[in-house]
Fold this protein.
Amino acid sequence: MPMPKDLSIVAGSTPVVSFGNPATSKVATLGINPSSSEFSYGKDQPLLSNKEKRLVDLEVLRISDSRPLTLEESEKVIDGCNSYFDSELHYEWFLKLEEIVLKPAGFTYYGRDASACHLDLVQWATDPVWSRIKSPAVRKKLLTDDKEFLRFQLSNYKFDYVYLNGGTVVEQFMALDIAELSVVHHVTRNSMGGTHKVFKGAANGTTYLGWGINAASNDANKLGLVELSQWIKTQESIK
């Protein structure tokens, strides 16, 4: 597909259909959308150099963003997504999800024992980042355009568990009507006694665990992250 216009998408980027190979993964984490840092040096900055590239972008394919990808080009993009964690250049954001979510559950993105991949609600990296996109219409359009592809992924890959990271992800997942989620736990949100809800549901052999706290955020309450990890460890997702 060609790059959608006027949706704050990183120039020269390609859709990230996954981080890691969903076909060989037992579980998946689910976020909002890829970071712009996966493709560029920062806001309005050029694409990463050849030595620093993490994914197959339009420079690698040697094409402009004005036409759809061919089958061969699409396969190169998908292969790059599947092998993302094979490189040491992967974004450090994933190390936080690995530590807080995957390790307690007995899974990992990395190495010969890799058993997890990461998916997103939206497959395009944006500039500005998602939280700084001012237009609600742009965010809605990105989510709407990609929701059926996400539904396809969650329905066709036979994951044992999918971990829904953050309130926006939980909300959007509920709108897909794939599985009904129930509140089963709470973790600390702030020192004033506020809490984040923790959810659980199941459909077609997959268990979905989700939470309002963003486990990979530097701003997340530290006690809440400890509580979330401890709760995940108590679940039957240990393999």
Q: What stands out?
A: The longest strand covers residues 195-203. The two ends are 37 Å apart (CA to CA). Helices lie at 58-61, 71-82, 93-105, 136-156, 167-176, 222-234.
